[in-house]
Automatic annotation (TrEMBL):
InterPro entries, sorted: ARR-like, CheY-like_superfamily, Sig_transdc_resp-reg_receiver
Chain residue ranges for the region called Disordered: 151-209
Protein name per UniProt: Two-component response regulator ARR9-like isoform X2
Protein's organism: Nelumbo nucifera (Sacred lotus)
Pfam families linked: Response_reg
Keyword Transcription regulation: yes
Modification sites for 4-aspartylphosphate: D78
Compositional bias per record (Basic and acidic residues), positions renumbered to this chain: 188-200
PANTHER family, A to Z: TWO-COMPONENT RESPONSE REGULATOR (PTHR43874), TWO-COMPONENT RESPONSE REGULATOR ORR4 (PTHR43874:SF106)
Keywords, sorted A to Z: Cytokinin signaling pathway, Phosphoprotein, Transcription, Transcription regulation, Two-component regulatory system
Length: 209
């Protein structure tokens, strides 16, 4: 649990080979990544919250359903797997509106240029040759950082779409309308106060004479 709390990025590793899966899991954990390892593309989709319509899985789900609490920052998958290949998994992820921005890296023990080009054209970030080494894992960090920058840009765009309502100008417009009414009232009261004071000395003067 300590590794999960300290990890900055969460990587989903997909490989049907137990040896290769343990190797990539150890390399990722040594690089302070949080790792979730599964042995098939269908289990990877299940963990990500996607369900397959084409394939029928009579077996109950074997992956914990707490994927909503654990956001996946990168997916690294083997190319040659039974049932669903890494290329098929890549296509399903890129076709999903909620998962298409997650970087995907393909691994393979065979160096086939046409296979590599297919994956890169479909949206894969990198194509690594097995056995994966620590230097290969270090190449994953730039792709993880790109994913975080995309999230920050989306948050900024959402903040710009909801500006605060302009209330200050309305208050400023009401103040000058009330100010000229005050001196008018004062002038009326002054004129009313002066008129009796001016008449009194006139009458008093006539009385003396």
């Amino acid at each position: 649990m300590g590794m999960a709390a300290e990890a900055q990025f969460h990587v989903l590793a997909v490989d049907d080979s137990l040896i290769d899966r343990k190797l990539i899991e150890r390399l990722l954990k040594n690089s302070s990544y949080q790792v979730t390892a599964v042995d098939s593309g269908s289990k990877a989709l299940e963990f990500l919250g996607l369900r397959e319509d084409d394939q029928t899985n009579p077996s109950p789900p074997s992956v914990p359903s707490n994927h909503h609490e654990m956001q996946v920052n990168l997916i690294i998958t083997d190319y040659c797997m039974p049932g669903m290949t890494g290329y098929d998994l890549l296509k399903k992820i890129k076709e999903s509106s909620s998962l298409k921005d997650i970087p995907v890296v393909i691994m393979s023990s065979e160096n086939v240029p046409s296979r590599i080009n297919r994956c890169l054209e479909e949206g894969a970030e990198e194509f690594l040759l097995k056995p994966v080494q620590l230097s290969d894992v270090n190449r994953l960090r730039p792709h993880l950082l790109k994913g975080k920058l995309r999230e920050q840009k989306l948050q900024q765009q959402q903040q710009q779409l909801s500006p605060p309502p302009p209330q200050l100008p309305q208050q400023q417009q009401l103040q000058p309308l009330q100010q000229p009414q005050q001196p008018n009232n004062k002038r009326k009261s002054i004129e009313e106060g002066l008129s009796p004071e001016r008449t009194r000395p006139r009458y008093s003067g006539l009385a003396v004479v």
